[in-house]
Amino acid sequence: MNLWQRLKKPTFVAAWCCAATSSLFAAPFSNLSFEAASKQAAQTGKIVLVDFYTTWCGPCKLLDKNTWTDAAVIRLLEEKTVALRIDAEKESALSKHYKIEAYPSVLLIKPDGTEIDRLVGYMGPKAFIEDFNAALGGKDSIGRAKDKMMAAGTNDPSARMQFGVALAQKGKNAEALTEYLWCFDHGLEASPAFAGVRLSFLLMNIKNLAVHYPPAQQSLETRRDERKAKVAAGSTDSHTIQELVSLNKALGEEEKNLAVFDQLPAGSKTRDIISRLLTDQFLKARRYADVLQGTDGKSAFNKAVERFNMTLDSMGKDTPTRKQVEESFRRFTITAGTHYFEALAGLKRNQDGKDLAGQILKFDSSQGTRTLLAEAAQRAENAELAQYVRR
């Protein structure tokens, strides 16, 4: 039985909502149903290409803008495919059948419905053409990712993580988890620069895998519990503490970070270190005193400004990246000040709040900063301070 016979409903490509939308695409996307596109592909010796997208997907929009409008890509699709664009949220039967979980997902499919390969995420024209041709030549996404990993070296955590992603996309969950866990357990040994990716994208990949593969969830819990025991015993290793906080976040159990904090002795170095990582959680829980840690917020903000100035002074005025660094550190400094301001607002320490707001606005008097302060005061339900910073 062919694929379209197994589906309960024929799947149709969503009609363009307006002429402006349809004019965006020079690429030969068809309005055929999936059934009709498969029949046409069989008759013409082509494959079916399906771009599964959603209306809210940023990378999908980049694919639309940069890749599907490229002349070389258009020629390739005309020669080799019957191409469809399908809104995965509207055409759920087909997207469920092919287990579409990330967007954009571009599937290359034989006329009989057999998947050849899938290209997941944004790709520029050159990368798309290379991967498309490799897939039709028999080298699927796993093979391509493995080649890249071998070229980079098996100790390269970024390459191994991408190999894990390719495995996960093909449903090879156990193999994917093995790669992910190597990256988490040994990635820093091979590449200290992997630290940020390790506690963000890598943990997100493991969390996504856990939705369908329980051992991934168990692996996160095991590593979390190991670090929790060390922190509870008084470890002052900042990496261990950061990992505990990040693992609880990945598990959706951030409240356990607060429980660990509450169990630590007052004044201990471990408690001091973890408190710096829990500001957002303290504010969300309205634990304003824990944000301030016995200060009025002004001295802490002044230290942040000093670090900002020292960073810029160390770079020199002619450093190419100075502007980007300045903008980034400025946002960071303003955010830190806003956190202290929100805590003062929540404690109704209005005069201290006004004094701090004055310091923050002296550092950056833009309307955006005033808006951030006003929103912070509103979250803390302090109308007086909200009105004060709007002046």
Task: Note down, in words, how this protein is organized.
It is a single chain. The termini are far apart. The protein has helices at residues 3-6, 19-22, 34-44, 58-67, 71-80, 92-97, 125-136, 141-152, 157-169, 173-190, 195-210, 214-232, 238-250, 255-263, 269-275, 279-284, 288-292, 298-315, 322-346, 350-363, 367-379, 383-390, and strands spanning 47-53, 81-87, 105-109, 115-120. The chain has four domains: 3-139, 3-Layer(aba) Sandwich (Glutaredoxin), CATH 3.40.30.10; 141-210, Serine Threonine Protein Phosphatase 5, Tetratricopeptide repeat (Alpha Horseshoe), CATH 1.25.40; 213-277, no CATH class; 292-390. Strands 2-1-3-4 form a four-stranded mixed sheet. Helices cover 65% and strands 6% of the residues. Residues 1-23 have low confidence and may be disordered. A hairpin with a 5-residue loop joins strand 3 and strand 4. Helix 18 (298-315) runs parallel beside helix 20 and helix 20 (350-363) runs parallel beside helix 22. The protein has 391 residues and is α+β, with helices and mostly antiparallel strands.
